Fold:
Amino acid sequence: MAILEVKNIEKCFGNLCVLKKIDFSLEKGESIAIIGSSGSGKTTLLRCLNFLERPDKGSIIINDKVIFDAMDPATQREREVRKKRLHFGLVFQNFNLFPQYTVLKNVTLAAELLAKEDSDFKHNKKAVMQEIQTRGKMLLAQVGLSDKLDNYPHMISGGQQQRVAIARALALEPDILCFDEPTSALDPEITGEVLKVIRSLADRNTTMIIVTHEMDFAREVADRVIFMDEGLIVEQGSPEELFGNPKEERTKQFISRYKKD
Amino acid sequence: MNQIYVIIERLSGSFLLNSKLFLLTLLFSLPLGLVIAFGTMSHFRPLRWLVRIFVWIIRGTPLMLQLVIIFYGPGLLNMNFSWPGGDTGRFIAATVAFAINYACYFSEIFRGGIESISKGQDEAGQVLGMTKSQIFFKVTLLQVIKRILPPVGNEVITLVKDTSLARIIANKEIIMMAGEYSSKGFIWPLFATGIYFLVFVGVLTILLDWLEKKLNYFRT
Structure:
């Protein structure tokens, strides 16, 4: 059963239609890579899934439950949008860590704020906070940053910052983890450490959508690759199919151009 | 010799009024400035323009004039309101005028600070399920404070010296007090007032530097 179904998503900014009719689904435990040139709508698609943009048309369905329908205002109430966002985690191109908090606090902050809203938080405050701390440390160990818990973001490298951002996105246990060009802002020699973390998540069957320019990485990690161009999904398939034997002319062009580089 | 002590004592006493006006103005104008800043950034156009026109009027007219209007205005316009009698009323009117005036200046500094924080911070908070107010208070605010500290410090220092404008509605602040002595032939008390302001601003400068260093533990 599909964990995520995206149906007929359209999004225009003024006259510019960035997403034209996006349809795809995602299975639990599956990781898909979305590739395509700049301006093809990849990032906007991720932003729509995370409710940072509101699609003009279409619907988003998670576990058979409609969480967004452009035609149905009842699915767009601000208060509920907040909770719905938690189905998704998003790792930004520019990390966007909170500079005034330590690495550990960056990971635990949102969970602490959510816990405080619980009605019986006061009764077991200590235990809950302890649990959040432990989990935060566990996640940071998972991304190899156990020795940086008390550092502030400006004290660590870009690659390390992005790994913190991944741990932060995992902290609220999203159903689907989204990556928006996670290595594009990094020096080429340190992209490896971030890709390694994402690879380890894929090995654990984390459900993921990865927007990336790293073709080799997409090929190796993704169960399925989606090629987008001018706001449309042109082609999708297994990495072997899409990279080895693309059917559409535009896909062929894109991949051959990439190979030349 | 005895007279010197008396004069210094009276100058010090009147500087207390300057200090009180300074502290109360900060206390009210900083939060009010934040509210006005949100007004000038409102997505509701009529409100935004109303607040911007208000800021224009307050920043566009002399504080001295505002003091006079706020103190004498209600009486002259036969409004159903009057300030309490005597020194209390004069002081309250001065505090109100100062608080509104400084709030408008602060609001522009706040607006600049808030708008300078990258959108990514806001979005990172949103995707983590934070509410708008959680994002503002837990994520944005401290970064804004760090950025606006130098210009706010400037305003705060200006405020120390502006407090002497309160004499225009007969608040007995230090310059007014010294002026009474000059008219009796003593000119030195007027010069001495400068020392009070210098010392006060000196302490503030140290405090502001300390605060800036305190916030140096992170970078925006």
Notes: The first helix of chain B runs from residue 2 to 40. Residues 29 and 61 of chain B are 18 Å apart (CA to CA). Chain B has eight helices and no strands.
